[in-house]
Design a protein that fits this description.
It is built from 15 helices and 15 strands. It is an alpha/beta fold. It has two domains: 109 residues, Enolase-like, N-terminal domain (Enolase-like, domain 1, 2-Layer Sandwich); 223 residues, Enolase-like C-terminal domain (TIM Barrel). α5 packs antiparallel against α6 and α10 packs parallel to α11. The longest helix has 24 residues. The radius of gyration is 23 Å and the shape is globular. The structure holds magnesium ion (MG). Magnesium ion (MG) binds next to loops.
């Protein structure tokens, strides 16, 4: 072999080794790429029936439709869900339509490069973070099952560190409020929806049944900073530990004014959608509320939690009305946060999945791979 041919042969061998190395890193199973040829992605809108009509300052309904996704590859199915948020003009059907337009992108992409895939989808689907969450969850569930590990392991978390979740009491008549509080007897903390003229009657009804610590959510219900201060100080006297979003989301300076005049922590929910917004909220809020549907899935939610913690802010993981698919996914990240409000699956009567369980308020995760959920017996579709 001539010297030049020897160099060429060595170069080819080195290139082959590099490619082999990269394949081995990106795709632990060398056959995965070939088998990925049969990858499918499908969506379905499911109607979740509420146990009680659910009322907040924003809406009232007897059911909620959420968007469900299935990502299938190598004989493994990953399940995902996203609950469209009315405030952001999202719906399950709108999200489904948006995902139909990017279906081939999802099935042709390398799922191990999920960061790139999800970032690309986020750019192509502006205003569809709930639909994006359905994709993110399905990919994470698939990945965990493919690797044989629960998702909390992927994030390096200990399932023993899950917090105690609140149980939410939606707005209702004093009589129904008392009934709901009794039904929530097993939960050490309750979350009460406020922000209406009837707040005093609501709190009176709750306090006639229980002395438990309360957390409240005003959902932007108070329009003036003076009213917010007055209400928050009164709520503190009623045993309220913290409050979510007392003022409309855009009133950041007013929120800062309120924060300097009350004692209990104030959390930004509607004012916080993505990690890059968190630094500007630091002076006005003590913490942020992270939701998978609002963030666009586990990856962005994890980013928001880590950014908030780095800024010294408190974190709460919350939810929309959802099945055990989303709630279990959120529970996988919950060992990272200070507070959990993950009760969306407990508010519905026809949960299509079984996953995280709740024991005296404590979120209990199994060691099953992926999200660790399975279809509920008798669930359709
Ligand atoms: Mg909230």
């Amino acid at each position: 072999m001539k010297r030049r041919e020897l160099f060429q042969a060595l170069a080819a061998a080195t290139a082959g080794a590099t490619l082999l190395g990269r394949d081995a890193f990106d795709q632990p199973d060398p056959g995965a790429g070939r088998r990925g040829a049969g990858t499918t992605f499908s969506t379905q809108v499911r109607r979740l029936e509420l146990r009680h009509t659910w009322t907040t300052t924003m809406s009232s309904s007897a059911y909620r439709d959420t968007l469900h996704a299935q990502y299938r590859r190598d004989g493994i199915t990953g399940y995902g869900e996203g609950a469209g948020i009315v405030r952001y003009q999202q719906s399950a059907l709108g999200g489904q339509k948006a995902l139909e337009a990017v279906q081939s992108l999802i099935t042709s992409a390398d799922p191990w490069c999920f960061e790139k895939l999800l970032a690309g989808l986020d750019r192509r689907l502006p205003g569809q973070r709930a639909a994006l969450a359905a994709v993110d969850l399905a990919l994470m569930d698939w990945m965990g099952k493919r690797l044989g590990v629960p998702i909390y392991r992927h994030f390096g978390l200990d399932p023993a560190d899950t917090p105690i979740t609140t149980m939410s009491i939606g707005m209702d008549t004093p009589e129904v409020t008392r009934q709901k509080v009794r039904e929530a007897e097993a939960f050490p903390f309750l979350k009460i929806k406020v922000g209406l003229a009837s707040d005093e009657a609501t709190l009176d009804a709750v306090r006639s049944v229980t002395k438990k610590p309360l957390r409240v959510d005003a959902n932007e219900g108070w329009t003036s900073k003076e009213e917010a201060v007055r209400k928050i100080n009164w709520l503190e006297s009623q045993g309220v530990q913290l409050i979510e979003q007392p003022l409309p989301a855009h009133l950041i300076e007013e929120a800062r004014w309120v924060r300097s005049r009350v004692h209990i922590p104030i959390f930004a929910d509607e004012a916080c959608h993505s990690a890059d917004e968190i630094p500007k909220l630091r002076e006005a809020f003590d913490g942020i509320v992270i939701k998978l549907d609002k963030a666009g899935g586990l990856i962005e939610a994890y980013r928001q939690i880590t950014v908030a913690k780095a800024l010294g802010m408190k974190t709460m993981i919350g939810c929309m009305v959802s099945s055990s698919c989303t709630i279990t996914a959120a529970a996988h990240l919950s060992p990272l946060v200070d507070y959990a409000d993950l009760d969306g699956h407990l508010l519905i009567a026809n949960d299509p999945f079984m996953g995280v369980t709740v024991e005296k308020g404590k979120l209990m995760l199994s060691d099953a791979p992926g999200l660790g959920i399975r279809p509920a017996p008798g669930a359709k579709g």
